[in-house]
Amino acid sequence: MQTKLFLTPAEVATELAVSPATVLRLIHRGDLPAILVSERIYRIPSAGFELYKAGKLRVAAPAPVRDVEQQPDLRGDERLPVAPAPARTSR
Q: Nearest 5°: phi and psi at 63?
């Protein structure tokens, strides 16, 4: 028998004895790995789910966030590019 590579949130919910909404919360919090298949459809990799159940899943730390400079550092003679104005049509 071949095991499934991906599980639905409903299948994971059944396995964990929780609601599918709880599984989606775990996904959105980043506690449970998932792939966004379409706008509202998630699939959970079986291998990631097994690691989650065993308590061995390592969640990657988010990238450090720093303030973004408002203006780039320009030399004296440099200028920022300016987008061309939209062409006017006469009526």
A: -65, 145
Q: Report the mean per-residue pLDDT for the chain.
A: 82
Distance CA 23, CA 44 (A): 10
pLDDT value of residue 75:
72
- Domain regions of the chain by residue span: 1-39
Spans of the chain, pLDDT less than 70: 1-2, 59-74, 80, 89-91
Are the CB atoms for 5 and 45 separated by under 8 Å?
A: yes
Please name the residue ranges forming H helices in the chain.
9-16, 20-29, 46-54
Burial of 10 (0-12, 13-18, 19+ CB in 10 A): exposed
